[in-house]
Amino acid sequence: MKQIALVVGATGITGSNLAEELLAQHWDTYGLARNPASLPKGVRAVRADLFDVDQLRQALQEVYPTHVFINTWVRRDTEAENVRDNASMLRNLFDVLAEKHSVEHVALVTGLKHYLGPFEAYVKEGALPETPLREEQPRLDLPNFYYAQEDEVYAAAKRDGFSWSVHRPHTVIGRAVGNLMNLGTTLAVYASICRQTGRKFIWPGSEAQWNGLSDVTDASILAKQLIWASTTPEAKNSAYNIVNGDVFRWKWLWPRIAAWFGVAYEGYSGAIRPLKVEMQHDHETWRKIASEHGLSSEKLDALASPWHTDLDLGRPIEVMTDMKNSRIKGFSEFQSTEDSFLNLFERLREEKIIP
Protein backbone atom coordinates (compact mmCIF):
# COMPACT_ATOMS: atom_id res chain seq x y z
CA MET A 1 0.00 0.00 0.00
CA LYS A 2 1.09 3.57 -0.66
CA GLN A 3 2.84 5.24 2.27
CA ILE A 4 1.74 8.81 2.86
CA ALA A 5 3.67 10.86 5.43
CA LEU A 6 2.49 13.94 7.25
CA VAL A 7 5.50 15.70 8.81
CA VAL A 8 4.28 18.08 11.50
CA GLY A 9 6.84 20.82 12.02
CA ALA A 10 8.39 20.21 8.62
CA THR A 11 10.47 23.40 8.50
CA GLY A 12 12.46 22.70 11.67
CA ILE A 13 15.79 20.94 12.07
CA THR A 14 14.32 17.46 12.60
CA GLY A 15 11.27 17.84 10.40
CA SER A 16 13.05 19.20 7.33
CA ASN A 17 15.74 16.53 7.42
CA LEU A 18 13.07 13.84 7.89
CA ALA A 19 11.09 15.19 4.93
CA GLU A 20 14.19 15.00 2.73
CA GLU A 21 14.79 11.38 3.77
CA LEU A 22 11.16 10.43 3.16
CA LEU A 23 11.33 11.90 -0.34
CA ALA A 24 14.57 10.00 -0.98
CA GLN A 25 12.71 6.81 -0.02
CA HIS A 26 9.85 7.72 -2.40
CA TRP A 27 7.15 8.49 0.14
CA ASP A 28 4.32 10.89 -0.68
CA THR A 29 5.26 13.59 1.80
CA TYR A 30 3.19 16.45 3.22
CA GLY A 31 4.74 19.10 5.44
CA LEU A 32 2.57 20.90 7.98
CA ALA A 33 3.75 24.26 9.29
CA ARG A 34 2.36 27.69 10.05
CA ASN A 35 4.70 29.09 7.41
CA PRO A 36 5.61 26.32 4.96
CA ALA A 37 7.51 28.60 2.57
CA SER A 38 10.87 26.99 3.40
CA LEU A 39 9.85 23.35 2.96
CA PRO A 40 12.30 21.05 1.16
CA LYS A 41 11.62 20.82 -2.57
CA GLY A 42 9.10 18.10 -3.33
CA VAL A 43 7.21 18.32 -0.03
CA ARG A 44 3.54 19.21 -0.39
CA ALA A 45 2.74 22.20 1.79
CA VAL A 46 0.02 22.14 4.44
CA ARG A 47 -0.35 25.59 6.01
CA ALA A 48 -2.07 25.39 9.38
CA ASP A 49 -1.90 26.48 13.00
CA LEU A 50 -2.29 23.55 15.37
CA PHE A 51 -4.20 25.76 17.80
CA ASP A 52 -6.91 26.47 15.20
CA VAL A 53 -8.98 23.32 14.76
CA ASP A 54 -11.14 24.70 11.96
CA GLN A 55 -8.10 25.84 9.98
CA LEU A 56 -6.39 22.51 10.62
CA ARG A 57 -9.42 20.55 9.42
CA GLN A 58 -9.65 22.64 6.27
CA ALA A 59 -5.91 22.36 5.53
CA LEU A 60 -5.99 18.57 5.88
CA GLN A 61 -9.26 18.10 3.98
CA GLU A 62 -7.62 16.23 1.08
CA VAL A 63 -4.76 14.66 3.05
CA TYR A 64 -5.07 11.06 4.28
CA PRO A 65 -1.75 10.20 5.95
CA THR A 66 -0.78 6.67 6.83
CA HIS A 67 2.15 7.85 8.97
CA VAL A 68 2.37 11.00 11.09
CA PHE A 69 5.71 12.34 12.30
CA ILE A 70 5.50 14.98 15.04
CA ASN A 71 8.53 17.27 15.20
CA THR A 72 7.06 20.40 16.73
CA TRP A 73 6.60 22.15 20.06
CA VAL A 74 6.06 25.64 21.44
CA ARG A 75 7.88 27.32 24.30
CA ARG A 76 6.00 29.38 26.85
CA ASP A 77 7.12 31.29 29.95
CA THR A 78 6.42 28.46 32.43
CA GLU A 79 6.41 24.68 32.22
CA ALA A 80 2.74 24.63 33.23
CA GLU A 81 1.99 26.68 30.11
CA ASN A 82 4.29 24.43 28.05
CA VAL A 83 2.35 21.38 29.22
CA ARG A 84 -1.02 22.98 28.48
CA ASP A 85 -0.22 24.29 25.01
CA ASN A 86 1.90 21.42 23.69
CA ALA A 87 -0.75 18.92 24.77
CA SER A 88 -3.47 21.06 23.19
CA MET A 89 -1.69 21.15 19.82
CA LEU A 90 -1.43 17.38 19.61
CA ARG A 91 -4.97 16.83 20.86
CA ASN A 92 -6.30 19.10 18.13
CA LEU A 93 -4.26 17.27 15.49
CA PHE A 94 -5.40 13.82 16.59
CA ASP A 95 -9.04 14.89 16.79
CA VAL A 96 -8.92 16.06 13.17
CA LEU A 97 -7.00 12.99 11.97
CA ALA A 98 -9.41 10.65 13.78
CA GLU A 99 -12.12 11.66 11.31
CA LYS A 100 -10.05 10.25 8.42
CA HIS A 101 -9.43 6.70 9.71
CA SER A 102 -6.20 6.58 7.69
CA VAL A 103 -3.42 6.78 10.30
CA GLU A 104 -1.45 3.58 10.91
CA HIS A 105 1.47 4.95 12.95
CA VAL A 106 2.46 8.11 14.83
CA ALA A 107 6.10 8.87 15.64
CA LEU A 108 6.81 11.58 18.22
CA VAL A 109 10.17 13.34 18.60
CA THR A 110 10.95 14.55 22.13
CA GLY A 111 14.41 14.66 23.69
CA LEU A 112 16.76 14.53 26.63
CA LYS A 113 14.60 16.70 28.86
CA HIS A 114 12.63 13.50 29.36
CA TYR A 115 15.47 12.45 31.68
CA LEU A 116 16.91 15.80 32.78
CA GLY A 117 13.79 17.83 33.48
CA PRO A 118 12.07 20.84 31.88
CA PHE A 119 13.67 24.20 31.11
CA GLU A 120 12.85 25.78 34.47
CA ALA A 121 14.07 22.81 36.53
CA TYR A 122 16.79 21.54 34.21
CA VAL A 123 18.95 19.08 36.22
CA LYS A 124 18.57 21.27 39.30
CA GLU A 125 16.04 19.44 41.42
CA GLY A 126 16.77 16.08 42.97
CA ALA A 127 19.58 13.68 42.19
CA LEU A 128 21.26 13.79 38.80
CA PRO A 129 20.31 10.81 36.64
CA GLU A 130 22.78 7.99 36.10
CA THR A 131 24.39 7.81 32.68
CA PRO A 132 24.16 6.35 30.12
CA LEU A 133 20.51 7.41 30.04
CA ARG A 134 18.18 4.51 29.30
CA GLU A 135 14.63 4.43 27.98
CA GLU A 136 13.37 2.46 30.96
CA GLN A 137 14.34 5.16 33.45
CA PRO A 138 11.13 6.43 35.11
CA ARG A 139 9.67 9.85 34.53
CA LEU A 140 10.78 12.60 36.88
CA ASP A 141 8.27 13.87 39.42
CA LEU A 142 8.09 17.23 37.65
CA PRO A 143 5.73 18.78 35.11
CA ASN A 144 7.22 18.21 31.66
CA PHE A 145 5.68 18.99 28.29
CA TYR A 146 7.39 15.95 26.77
CA TYR A 147 5.35 13.74 29.10
CA ALA A 148 2.21 15.64 28.11
CA GLN A 149 2.96 15.08 24.42
CA GLU A 150 3.55 11.37 25.02
CA ASP A 151 0.28 11.05 26.92
CA GLU A 152 -1.66 12.61 24.04
CA VAL A 153 -0.08 10.09 21.64
CA TYR A 154 -0.89 7.17 23.93
CA ALA A 155 -4.50 8.28 24.40
CA ALA A 156 -5.12 8.81 20.69
CA ALA A 157 -3.44 5.49 19.79
CA LYS A 158 -5.72 3.65 22.21
CA ARG A 159 -8.80 5.44 20.87
CA ASP A 160 -8.00 5.28 17.14
CA GLY A 161 -6.05 2.03 16.88
CA PHE A 162 -2.72 3.18 15.45
CA SER A 163 0.75 2.14 16.59
CA TRP A 164 3.27 4.65 17.96
CA SER A 165 6.93 5.27 18.65
CA VAL A 166 8.73 7.93 20.71
CA HIS A 167 12.20 9.14 19.73
CA ARG A 168 14.56 10.90 22.14
CA PRO A 169 17.48 12.60 20.37
CA HIS A 170 19.68 15.18 21.98
CA THR A 171 21.90 17.99 20.76
CA VAL A 172 20.59 17.59 17.22
CA ILE A 173 23.11 18.54 14.52
CA GLY A 174 21.76 19.40 11.10
CA ARG A 175 20.88 22.13 8.66
CA ALA A 176 18.04 24.43 9.76
CA VAL A 177 17.57 28.18 10.02
CA GLY A 178 15.47 29.86 12.68
CA ASN A 179 15.29 26.75 14.85
CA LEU A 180 15.26 27.11 18.63
CA MET A 181 17.55 24.12 19.21
CA ASN A 182 20.29 24.62 16.66
CA LEU A 183 23.68 24.02 18.29
CA GLY A 184 25.62 23.28 15.11
CA THR A 185 24.58 26.45 13.28
CA THR A 186 24.97 28.50 16.46
CA LEU A 187 28.58 27.35 16.85
CA ALA A 188 29.26 27.99 13.16
CA VAL A 189 27.97 31.56 13.44
CA TYR A 190 29.92 32.13 16.67
CA ALA A 191 33.15 30.80 15.15
CA SER A 192 32.65 32.98 12.09
CA ILE A 193 32.29 36.04 14.33
CA CYS A 194 35.44 35.03 16.22
CA ARG A 195 37.38 34.81 12.96
CA GLN A 196 36.09 38.17 11.75
CA THR A 197 36.85 39.97 15.02
CA GLY A 198 40.02 38.13 16.06
CA ARG A 199 38.39 36.82 19.24
CA LYS A 200 39.09 33.39 20.69
CA PHE A 201 36.55 30.61 20.23
CA ILE A 202 35.71 30.27 23.94
CA TRP A 203 34.17 27.14 25.42
CA PRO A 204 30.90 28.32 27.02
CA GLY A 205 29.93 25.24 29.01
CA SER A 206 30.61 23.27 32.16
CA GLU A 207 33.67 21.35 33.31
CA ALA A 208 31.64 18.12 33.28
CA GLN A 209 30.76 18.59 29.62
CA TRP A 210 34.29 19.67 28.66
CA ASN A 211 35.99 16.66 30.24
CA GLY A 212 33.23 14.05 30.21
CA LEU A 213 32.01 11.72 27.51
CA SER A 214 29.25 12.98 25.22
CA ASP A 215 27.22 11.92 22.23
CA VAL A 216 24.95 13.85 19.86
CA THR A 217 22.29 13.17 17.24
CA ASP A 218 22.71 13.92 13.56
CA ALA A 219 19.34 14.93 12.09
CA SER A 220 19.84 12.43 9.27
CA ILE A 221 20.21 9.45 11.60
CA LEU A 222 17.15 10.54 13.55
CA ALA A 223 15.21 10.59 10.27
CA LYS A 224 16.32 7.04 9.50
CA GLN A 225 15.25 5.80 12.93
CA LEU A 226 11.86 7.50 12.63
CA ILE A 227 11.15 5.72 9.35
CA TRP A 228 12.57 2.42 10.63
CA ALA A 229 10.35 2.42 13.73
CA SER A 230 7.31 3.40 11.67
CA THR A 231 7.69 0.54 9.20
CA THR A 232 9.20 -2.29 11.28
CA PRO A 233 6.52 -4.32 13.10
CA GLU A 234 8.71 -5.34 16.03
CA ALA A 235 9.81 -1.73 16.57
CA LYS A 236 6.37 -0.26 17.13
CA ASN A 237 4.88 0.83 20.46
CA SER A 238 8.19 1.64 22.13
CA ALA A 239 10.44 4.57 23.01
CA TYR A 240 13.96 4.93 21.61
CA ASN A 241 17.00 6.98 22.38
CA ILE A 242 18.76 8.02 19.20
CA VAL A 243 22.34 9.24 18.86
CA ASN A 244 25.08 8.85 16.27
CA GLY A 245 26.61 5.74 17.80
CA ASP A 246 30.02 7.14 18.75
CA VAL A 247 31.19 9.03 21.83
CA PHE A 248 33.62 11.94 22.20
CA ARG A 249 34.88 14.55 24.63
CA TRP A 250 34.30 18.22 23.90
CA LYS A 251 37.89 18.97 24.89
CA TRP A 252 38.82 16.85 21.84
CA LEU A 253 36.16 18.15 19.43
CA TRP A 254 36.31 21.86 20.31
CA PRO A 255 39.86 22.38 18.97
CA ARG A 256 38.92 20.54 15.78
CA ILE A 257 35.97 22.85 15.20
CA ALA A 258 38.21 25.85 15.88
CA ALA A 259 40.77 24.54 13.39
CA TRP A 260 38.13 24.18 10.68
CA PHE A 261 37.29 27.86 11.05
CA GLY A 262 40.92 28.90 11.47
CA VAL A 263 40.50 30.48 14.90
CA ALA A 264 42.29 30.20 18.22
CA TYR A 265 40.28 28.54 20.98
CA GLU A 266 40.09 28.56 24.75
CA GLY A 267 38.78 25.60 26.74
CA TYR A 268 37.24 25.33 30.17
CA SER A 269 39.06 27.66 32.55
CA GLY A 270 37.28 27.33 35.88
CA ALA A 271 33.84 28.80 35.17
CA ILE A 272 30.96 28.63 32.73
CA ARG A 273 31.07 31.51 30.25
CA PRO A 274 27.63 31.56 28.61
CA LEU A 275 27.45 32.01 24.88
CA LYS A 276 24.37 34.17 25.38
CA VAL A 277 26.57 36.70 27.16
CA GLU A 278 29.50 36.27 24.77
CA MET A 279 27.30 36.99 21.74
CA GLN A 280 24.93 39.57 23.21
CA HIS A 281 26.58 42.52 21.42
CA ASP A 282 27.29 40.74 18.13
CA HIS A 283 24.14 41.69 16.22
CA GLU A 284 25.74 44.59 14.39
CA THR A 285 28.93 42.59 13.83
CA TRP A 286 26.94 39.85 12.14
CA ARG A 287 25.04 42.33 10.02
CA LYS A 288 28.34 43.66 8.72
CA ILE A 289 29.70 40.14 8.09
CA ALA A 290 26.54 39.20 6.21
CA SER A 291 26.64 42.35 4.12
CA GLU A 292 30.32 41.97 3.29
CA HIS A 293 30.00 38.33 2.24
CA GLY A 294 26.52 38.44 0.69
CA LEU A 295 25.04 36.01 3.20
CA SER A 296 21.44 34.89 3.26
CA SER A 297 20.51 36.55 6.57
CA GLU A 298 21.77 39.64 8.37
CA LYS A 299 19.75 38.79 11.51
CA LEU A 300 21.79 37.00 14.14
CA ASP A 301 18.68 35.81 15.99
CA ALA A 302 17.42 34.10 12.82
CA LEU A 303 20.46 31.82 12.79
CA ALA A 304 21.81 31.37 16.31
CA SER A 305 20.18 30.22 19.56
CA PRO A 306 22.87 30.83 22.21
CA TRP A 307 20.49 30.27 25.13
CA HIS A 308 19.76 26.70 24.08
CA THR A 309 23.40 25.94 23.26
CA ASP A 310 24.20 27.11 26.80
CA LEU A 311 21.66 24.61 28.15
CA ASP A 312 23.24 21.78 26.16
CA LEU A 313 26.86 22.59 26.97
CA GLY A 314 26.25 23.75 30.53
CA ARG A 315 24.91 20.46 31.84
CA PRO A 316 26.59 19.51 35.13
CA ILE A 317 27.02 15.88 34.04
CA GLU A 318 28.49 14.08 31.08
CA VAL A 319 25.66 13.03 28.80
CA MET A 320 25.54 9.69 27.03
CA THR A 321 22.47 7.75 25.98
CA ASP A 322 22.07 4.02 25.62
CA MET A 323 20.73 2.76 22.26
CA LYS A 324 20.37 -0.91 23.18
CA ASN A 325 16.60 -0.86 22.69
CA SER A 326 16.76 -0.11 18.97
CA ARG A 327 20.00 -2.02 18.31
CA ILE A 328 18.46 -5.26 19.58
CA LYS A 329 15.53 -4.76 17.23
CA GLY A 330 17.75 -4.24 14.20
CA PHE A 331 18.47 -0.53 13.83
CA SER A 332 22.15 -0.38 12.87
CA GLU A 333 22.74 3.08 11.36
CA PHE A 334 25.88 4.95 12.43
CA GLN A 335 27.16 8.48 11.91
CA SER A 336 30.56 10.01 12.76
CA THR A 337 30.01 13.00 15.04
CA GLU A 338 33.00 14.93 13.72
CA ASP A 339 31.61 14.44 10.22
CA SER A 340 28.19 15.66 11.43
CA PHE A 341 29.70 19.00 12.38
CA LEU A 342 32.11 19.42 9.48
CA ASN A 343 29.54 18.38 6.87
CA LEU A 344 27.09 20.86 8.36
CA PHE A 345 29.67 23.65 8.24
CA GLU A 346 30.39 22.87 4.58
CA ARG A 347 26.69 22.99 3.73
CA LEU A 348 26.18 26.27 5.61
CA ARG A 349 29.06 27.77 3.68
CA GLU A 350 27.77 26.47 0.33
CA GLU A 351 24.35 27.94 1.03
CA LYS A 352 25.84 31.32 2.01
CA ILE A 353 24.58 31.10 5.58
CA ILE A 354 28.11 31.56 6.99
CA PRO A 355 31.11 33.13 5.20
Report on the architecture of this protein.
With 355 residues, the protein is α/β, with parallel strands linked by helices. Helix content is 41%, strand content 13%. The chain has helices spanning 13-24, 53-59, 79-98, 113-116, 145-160, 183-197, 207-211, 219-231, 250-261, 275-278, 283-293, 306-313, 324-328, 337-350, and strands at residues 4-8, 28-33, 44-47, 67-70, 105-109, 163-168, 172-173, 201-202, 213-214, 217-218, 238-241, 248-249, 265-266. The strands form four sheets. It has a seven-stranded parallel sheet, with helices on both faces. A two-stranded parallel ribbon has the order 7-10. The chain has a two-stranded parallel ribbon with strand order 8-13. The radius of gyration is 20 Å and the shape is globular. The mean pLDDT is 94.
